[in-house]
Amino acid sequence: MLLQHQCSWGRAMKVPIIGIKRLCMDTDGEGVTTLVAFYGCTLNCNYCLNPHSKELLYPIKWYTEETLYREVKIDYLYFQATGGGLTFGGGEPLLHIDFINSMKKQYGQDICFNAETALHIEWDLIKRSTKAIDHYIVDCKSMDNNIYKRYTGQDNGRMRENLARLIEQVGNERLTVKLPIIPGYQEEGQLGYSKEQLAAIGITDIRTFPYTTQIDKVKRE
Question: 111-133: per-residue pLDDT in tens?
């Protein structure tokens, strides 16, 4: 069940947001972006970068489309000047696609909407996102199911199928796929298989990045 509800006095929805990070450069989309992180995720990753996306012990703020717009509109000039915009992350932002679609319709026609998504959700949610999301940043984890399952606790079949269907829907120009280097799970030398599999379905923008975990810190010390 999604943590999302409709306000009793109108059609505005309220959604749980765990954080808003302004003035991001080159990490969450092109240009200057503001990262809006939603509560809620379908994976159980070891060394999760945002554990508060699943733990109710952390503070959560509830936003309507209007209250979120009021908070992020201060940077609209930066968005328009640099080709940036809002990047929805989490957690899994597409669990809240009705809210994102409403935001796009009301306040986002002239700026870019990005989604940082693991694609481990129902296809219908992804399909409904294609008009609102201008660019997808897919956190693939790994195309190797053994690595994926050890790290996330889930099979990667759903992600792989959704990724293939998404590229058919929107083309490769609207997709960036990120492959993490995860100490103890996916080392840099193990990325070749994933890169080959992604290229085979038409992905051209593939980026790698390192996770910093406690294990990694111990190794370096």
Answer: 999 999 999 999 999 999 999 99
